Amino acid sequence: MRAPLSLFLFLLSAMLQAGSTPLTFSSGEQQVSLIELYTSEGCSRCPPADRFLQSLGKQEGLFSTFIPLSFHVDYWDYIGWADPYASPAFSDRQRRYAQIHDSNRVYTPGFFINGNEWRGFFQRDRNWRGSLSRKKVGVLSVTYQHPTLQATFEGKLPDSARLNTAWIGLGLESSIQRGENRGKTLQHDFVVLQWKNQPMPSSTVTLTLPSPPDNGQQRTGLVAWISQSSDPRPVQAAGSLLPSKTTIH
After folding, report:
1. Which among 50, 56, 69, 185 has the fewest CB atoms less than 10 Å away?
2. Which residues of the chain form beta strands (DSSP E)?
3. Are 83 and 40 within 8 A, CB to CB?
4. CA angle 163, 119, 233 (to 5 degrees)
5. In what order do the strands lie in the sheet with 148-155?
6. What is the Cα–Cα distance from 104 to 131, expressed in whole angstroms?
7. What is the DSSP letter of 156?
8. Is the distance from CB of 215 to CB of 169 less than 8 angstroms?
9. Does residue 12 surpass a pLDDT of 50?
10. Which of the four pLDDT bands, split at 50, 70 and 90, describes residue 245?
11. What pLDDT, on a 0 to 100 scale, did the predictor assign at position 15?
């Protein structure tokens, strides 16, 4: 007699979790640059910026030299389209950058490289590589085996250090029904689906990481970076895509 499908799926999930190979990745000693895009599905000027960020996925140095992150803000939701990837925390992060740079203005699309505003997207040459860091800051190593993540930093840990972790989704698609992009189908990569921020009191920390949200993404990635409690600018970052066949429960 055949076992119920639900029992089969439960046993398969248990085997995957018990026998899964840990995901390990690390930065080099040189700082890995975070390229952050603040965007919204409700903004008509944002789709070209989204496509630009997508194109970085085909560039040499992905995850080893730079990591793209797409933070969807919620301050465009009032026009009639609630961005499914938006979070007030992402809007607050952009506002914090604005405060650091003595500005009260936030806008989309907005780019930051290592926490510094980058306006090269609006220029003809778009020389983003010229803004990447070349500083040697130390090695950030991460080991993840559901649900446990361990991060170790071999370098000078900043005062009041924080460890940031983010699940990212690639291959996302939305059919926009209202707002400035009404009638368009938008594709997204490197979308931050979940972001956590916690104290890092020592060079090695271990934490329990929630499973990534299932937004129908084709690929899932995990990114970690170190910052200070008073300054969101990244000190060092590391990231990787999960194997394409990996399923986390």
Report:
1. 185
2. 23-26, 33-39, 66-72, 110-113, 116-118, 138-145, 148-155, 161-170, 172-175, 185-188, 191-199, 204-208, 219-228, 231-241
3. yes
4. 15
5. 23-26, 138-145, 148-155, 204-208
6. 23
7. -
8. yes
9. no
10. low
11. 39
38: exposed, middle or buried (Cβ count in 10 Å: 0-12, 13-18, 19+): buried
Measured CA to CA, the distance from residue 131 to residue 215 in angstroms comes to 32
Please report, for residues 57, 71, 125, 164, 206, the alpha-carbon distance to residue 189 in angstroms, rounded to integers and kept in the order given. 8, 11, 22, 19, 28
When pLDDT is averaged across residues 225-248 and rounded to a whole number, the result is: 88
pLDDT, tens digit, for every residue of 90-127? 999 999 999 998 888 899 999 999 999 999 999 988 99
Which tokens belong to 92? 């607050």
The token pair that represents 241 in the structure block: 């895509």
pLDDT, tens digit, for every residue of 130-163?
Answer: 999 999 999 999 999 999 999 999 999 999 999 9
Q: Is 41 exposed, middle or buried (0-12, 13-18, 19+ CB in 10 A)?
A: buried
> What pLDDT score was predicted for residue 248?
57
Residue type, 223: V
- Name, in order, each residue with C-beta under 8 angstroms of 126's C-beta and a sequence gap of 6 or more: 52, 120
Name the residue among 112, 107, 140 with its Cα closest to residue 27: 140
9 vs 137, residue with greater confidence: 137
pLDDT tens digits, residue range 161-182? 999 999 999 999 999 999 999 9
Q: What's the Cα-to-Cα distance from 170 to each of 44, 102, 173, 181, rounded to whole Å?
A: 21, 33, 9, 20
**What is the chain's alpha carbon radius of gyration, rounded to the nearest angstrom?**
19
